[in-house]
Amino acid sequence: MTALSLLILLSVGFATGVMTVAAAFVQAPPRLADIVGDPRPKGVPVRFAFLTAPPADLGLAGQTPEAFLLQRIVFATIGALWVPLLAVVLALGDVAPPVILTGALSLATAVVGWMLPAASLKSKVARARAELRGALACYCRLVALGRVGDRGPVEALRYPASLGDGWTFRRIRDAMDETALLGEMPWDGLQRLGVATGVRELSDLTHVVASAGRDGASIVTSLRAKADSIEQQLSAERKTGAAVRSDRMDLPLALLGLAFVVFLAFPGVVTMLTT
Q1: Are 209 and 221 in contact (CB under 8 A)?
Q2: What one-character DSSP code corresponds to residue 164?
Q3: CA-based max dimension of the chain
Q4: Cα separation of 66 and 42, whole Å?
Q5: Looking at the predicted structure, is the pLDDT value of residue 45 above 50?
Q6: Per-residue pLDDT, 79
Q7: Is residue 227 packed enough to be buried (19+ CB in 10 Å), middle (13-18) or exposed (0-12)?
Q8: Which top-level group of life is the source organism from (predicted)?
Q9: Is residue 1 predicted with pLDDT exceeding 60?
Q10: Which pLDDT does position 118 carry in this prediction?
């Protein structure tokens, strides 16, 4: 057995073992008796929690810890396998790459595959939080209008949540409905939503509205100031992101120019070296 064949067998065995471990984390649909008997949520064991992502990020992306971990394992397995398979194809054409190089590249692509879902999740969460904060600014203005129209603090919070139809307002509306079912105040739902999504501005809004509900203080000015602050911060972040994307375009343009120069100079250089 050649070294390359041994490496391929080891890669296949490694992938099989990883997929077997991943299958252990995939839960079957729960039975009603199990849910009633044990209401505690099931998830990835605590000792493997570092392999997943923060619950707030996963909640915003609509992923479970198990699904995210399985995605990372699958991507890492694909990354580990495609290099040996490519080496087999090259070996069939009598171009066998060194075993050490094949193993190093296989490990590198496995690491890249492991990191890709985390990078994709980070991008999705950043966009989702920006959308939620933008909706929160609009929500603050609607609540302020309700207070100007003599709505009570509770009604001023609940009514605007029913006006929007996007996922951001739906999350706020669900938080309001949950507090109504639990017999709590609406700002308690906003507090939980802020913790669940990692949006600090929701917690800040909770403190403003809760103080008005307890002390009867006017919050119209505070709500409008909070909306202005959120919009200014989002505008600054958009400008910063646009500047970063503009700077990133410099490298591809430089590489394109370098490739064009090499393309033009290559025939002359080859002619000089062969004569």
Answers
A1: no
A2: -
A3: 92
A4: 10
A5: yes
A6: 87
A7: buried
A8: Bacteria
A9: no
A10: 92
